[in-house]
Each structure stands twice: as C-alpha cells, then as structure tokens.
Amino acid sequence: MSMKPIEFDRRYGELDQVISAYVGLQADDAPGKQSEALQAYLRHTWHARPWALATAERQIREYARNPPGRLRLSLGEFYPVPDVGLPESAIQDWLFVIADHLKHSIEQGEVPPPSTPRTHWEWHARFPELGQLLGGWFSQDMPDEFPDHDAAVDDYIATTDPQLVARLKGELHELLALALEESDYALAVAELGMEVDPPRPYSPSGWLAHLADSLGGAFKADYGPGAAAD
After folding, report:
1. Where are the domains of the chain?
2. Considering the entire predicted model, what is its pTM?
3. Could you tell me how far CA 66 lies from the centroid of its own chain?
C-alpha cells in the first residue's frame, strides 16, 4: 500500500527536494567537495527556505542509516532514490556525504551569496510561476493554439489566479534585475520551458520587460466610492 502524502512528506519530503536537484547532473559529492547539484540546492534553500536545511539533513541521514529492502520498496512504503548515475552499493555512502555537507553548512553558517541560477532545477525553484507560464503557454504548440504571444499571455491572465499573476510579475522583475547577457536570458527562458522565439522585434530580455510592463494592467485598485478621480 502506497504511503499517504502527509506521511511521505514527514519522512522524505525534503529528501526528495535534494535528490530532485540532481536530475541530469553528476552525483559526484565527496568529503570536502560539493557537487554542482548540491551547491544549487544550498544556494536556493539558504535564501528561500533556510529552515528546511536541517530537515533535509535529518531525513537524508535517517534514510541512509535505514535503507529500505526490496519488499518495502515494492509496497511503496519507502522513498525509492531515482537513478543518479551511481551503483546501488554506493548510494548509502553518498547520502551520508550529502548529510555531512548539509550539517557543516548549517553549523558553520556558510550561506552562499545570491547568484544567477546555474542548474535546471535551480531555475525552476527560483522562478516557479515564470516556468509555469513559459512551459505551459509557450511550448512548441503555441503557434497552433494562439494567434500570437499576446493572446497566449491574455489566456494565462484570464485563467490564472490574480495572486499568481502578481507573483509572476515579481519573478519577471527579479530575473531582469540579474542584468544578464542577452545569451544568458535566452538560456534562462529555454531552461524555464519556452520553446518558441520571442515575438519580433524583441530580444529575450526585451520581451520579458515588455511582459512585465503588460502585467501592470492586470491589477486594479479599489479606492472606494469617496475617492477623488485624477
């Protein structure tokens, strides 16, 4: 019988967040050496959810100490570690190394400085709503579904909770504040799921700025019946 979601999160929720950061990357952590994936997890989590680091360290260490047998895995009672490119015999030691890195980072207060995302996981962890827009409305099928980019954006606004639209605008401003090279903005929108080119004559950053400006009209303040009109 599969584990209930609340029980899964209590035991493995943050463990799963850490392991997800390794998708497509090397699990080459070693004593004194953090993998690119673990650096991305630490960089994002220290600034977004610092309290989760201790939970991750505990869950990973407990899992490494009590690895599941095949029967319990088949019953769905344990978290099955996805393929990270390591032989099964090396997984336990690797998990202990990760736990030790997390513990050291917490105890020493080693907070990575803010930085541009460097992995696919980190891009989506930092800009989740922008990833939702670009991956959901600007896939390669967009030209078949909408007459142009503005129509796709209008559909997103019409079908999305205004609070999420507001979050998207904040993420756009945060991304533009990184002041990246144009090639890096092209990489960013591709990492976040955009499979079509920006509309002419915009560059990737130009279109993101245009998108942020266009969202300004999506929010209308109610000043009350006694407010004076300008």
Report:
1. 5-108, 127-218
2. 0.88
3. 29
